[in-house]
């Protein structure tokens, strides 16, 4: 074991190893005995590929297609499968395609975009077998101005489809439900005679308030007058699903202060909680198609929930109204699907990569079908010894309250620090800001800890997973509560002697980038930082961003332009004279959520003052980087920047 300063340790967890071996995993689907999932591959320029599981998992989407959608810009719910036929949205042209099993090439279901920059986008669909059509969310960008969202039906190329009745048909789908700003979770009853869906309007985001509607569907496919059965302006509904017998709609609601499961009976219109508890069974709907629970037969539900920042999996017995935990080695769950005694889901833990996992309910045995990285088992088996295990921490913060975070101490079996030295700290701020830090193995975190740099992934006030009251702490307080919690989390660790309070840096992406810049500008604590496509001008974001988030800031800061003074007060770009710490910026040139101008104005302001500053603008990247070479370059550049400008360490690669 060598003695060397924290932050200078050599690690086998290199940036090229991370991007060469890592993929993203999401969107589990079940079709008969087959399990499918979606893989995001940085090595293929970020292409999203539908994969069918089995002894030899096989790609379903051909190489020239990318199963990704830009509905709400964040996408999600880009594909489905039924009876071996995959229907997916293609990223390049936004069109829906149909690919029967064994077919040579996908067949388009919707028209080509009428012009450059004008398209229809599709997501979150289901199959209406009774009428041979796809039903899902469409976002129409062909009319100019703000896009128009609706629930639509698109005909499928199946033999002998029944005649369609009614008016309102369009080449890119027949509108079934409109009149609201946003839609999600269109779900057809088992007999095909009723349709449920969520809708919400500006200025709400889906975690503020949504409405659950129900309508009858006639034989021709038209729907009757919609009835509001749950939700409202101050109640967030998530993931409505039909009971197997079609007699009830189950959904997640935060009406109690926590996202809990509820059951709405169609016959009586009565709604009741299935199991009230201080836990979160829902997640913020940044991406469509999210799933935290699934029916496993008529009398039980397999569900994932979060407590104290860590996830759990359990079976809810509907007859006994009893929750039985399922023992697994995982602490983070999503995309839960079930059929009979089988459950398939995405899961991970601090020492286990994101994985697609199949579990048998009777025996409790699980099998990993696919991992986001195989580094721990094949490529570099010794890497397991370099992994830092997560510690959930609760710390005091402003106003006598407490906040939360996930702490990763440095770990490297090849090195020991000089006597008495404390490690530097990197505080990571998740995006959103209505989101949460994940406990799944993130080699991007282990990249730092294995080099002797501690990491605090802070769940500042406003994060999800801790109830509605905690989530609402950020109401009109973005740039204050989150910044206070980031600073107080770092101070807490320093006061306990776990880190060096004189060598703390902060990093974040998107909304986390705003927290980073605000902390560096308005607080004198951190010694440097990194902004990944972060917000520097809150007013510019309010004026120039996409539809989904165009009124988000009304809730986070206040309505614009009425509160223009408050926006200016909280925007780091207007106070660059107060920023004297080194900052490095990373930005995609196609980012429609936080345009490059947000970074460039800040960079120029810092350059004029002679501050140490770095700026990387990546061609072909949007909001979040998907290309392997760019991800690799960011990691190494951020480390090098801190070593030279903040820590004063000599790196060993």
Task: List its traits.
653 residues, alpha+beta, 4-stranded antiparallel β-sheet, 34% strand
What can you see in these coordinates?
The structure is a single chain. The chain has 653 residues and is α+β, with helices and mostly antiparallel strands. The longest helix is centred in the last third of the chain and has 20 residues.
Query: What helical percentage do the residues reach?
Result: 10-25%
Query: Which structural class matches the secondary elements?
Result: alpha+beta
What proportion of the residues form beta strands (DSSP E)? 25-35%
Tally of DSSP β-strands = 38
Unreliable residue stretches: 160-169
Query: Mind summarizing the main beta sheet?
Result: 8 strands, mixed
Widest beta sheet: strand line-up: 30-31-34-33-35-36-37-38
Tally of alpha and pi helices: 11
What Rg, in angstroms, do the CA atoms define?
Answer: 24 Å
Helix and strand topology:
Layout lengths: L1 E2 L11 H7 L2 E8 L2 E8 L5 E6 L5 E2 L19 E4 L2 E5 L6 E4 L7 E2 L11 E9 L4 E8 L7 E8 L18 E4 L4 E7 L5 E7 L10 E6 L10 E5 L5 E6 L5 E6 L6 E6 L5 E3 L19 E3 L4 E8 L2 E8 L4 E4 L6 E8 L2 E8 L2 E9 L5 E6 L3 H5 L11 E6 L5 E7 L6 E2 L8 E5 L13 H7 L4 E6 L8 H4 L9 H15 L8 E6 L1 H12 L5 E5 L5 H6 L8 H5 L7 H7 L12 E6 L7 H13 L4 E6 L9 H20 L6
Parallel strand pairs: 1-32, 33-34, 33-35, 35-36, 36-37, 37-38
Antiparallel strand pairs: 2-3, 3-4, 4-5, 6-7, 7-8, 8-9, 10-11, 11-12, 12-13, 14-15, 15-16, 16-17, 18-19, 19-20, 20-21, 22-23, 23-24, 24-25, 26-27, 27-28, 28-29, 30-31, 31-34
Helix pairs in contact: 1-11, 5-6
